[in-house]
Write a structure and sequence with these properties.
The protein contains six helices and seven strands. A hairpin with a 7-residue loop joins strand 2 and strand 3.
Length: about 190
Amino acid sequence: MPIRIADLTAHDAQSWLPDALSVYVTAMNYPLGTEVQRAPLWHEHIQRPGWQAVGAFDSLGPASGRETLVGIAYGYSGANDQWWNQQVRSGLVRAGSSRERVSAITDSYFELTELHVHPSAQGQQIGEAILTRLLDGRDEPQVLLSTPEVDAENNRAWRLYRRLGFADVLRGFSFAGDPRPFAVLGRALPLR
């Protein structure tokens, strides 16, 4: 059966959140138990203005009548009092961006906080489908995200972002508490 793409409500978070965190941990190859640490943060994000989430569901077979979550994307309206925003602002200033450029980038945007597809379902354009649905109809003028740097941008996430027109905002950036280099990418909305 085809993959079903659906909006996920904050009201139903208790039912979909454990599966979404499992997809996240598996896709990112994090150690088991990471989902327990991340759950409170995801719950807090659900309360943010402009929060929205989309899931991808695969049928477990016509006889079972059940589905499993294989993809998750969510985000919310960015704001100056949020940790991620402050980190990006600081990085842009350190990179020599003018006050005007920092404001243009960080004053009004949709933050694509998470986008993950279970490895068993990757390669089917599920990431593109849920991202497109998530960004459809957003009021913000742009979308921003951060993703780990990868040699030659050689992974599915990078190929997806580039295919959809995401451009560099900040490269080789390290967030407080994470030594890995990240890229901050963005693009104007609407997506199409």
